[in-house]
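Protein in question passed on here:
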Amino acid sequence: MLIQEHDLTIRRMRDFPEDYALMAKWRSDPEVLTYYGGRDKPLSLDGARAKYRPRVLGQENVTPCIVELDETPIGYMQFYTASDADKRRFGFPGEERICGIDLFIGETRFWNQGIGTRMVATMLDYLFLEQKADRVMIDPEMWNRRAVRCYEKAGFKKVRILPKHELHEGIWRDSWLMVVHRK
């Protein structure tokens, strides 16, 4: 377990068939893909294993996590440390420790209940306290108002627009660069 906050657990994704099956299920759900990844990019079980296994094994600078509510897997979060190139690109001071996060709730029956905000707030506490981050960034597509509002409720502020930042369903979409500072 990485983080426990009452009934919410964020644990590292494991190199187990069950975790890859969850990712394949969630990353092939058209409703989830509308907001995360795109409906033109569903993942099969083999695709989920190929994408996430290098992260699980520590071969990439991304820590993949499964989110559970009352021990039921409901979603995915990942965090990473921004590279020096990313810091320069986004205009962050080189000496600061900048982390980034991405997430989705894969079980759509849990949408619109404030759980996403809880997930983000819980991860922020971990990144600031345990990982010693100075800032945390996230880059939602601008049209995804629900995600932007979730991140604002967790403390993120819009910093600037990232033009044509994300390829989503064949269209390059603008994103917000959103940041929260350690208090």
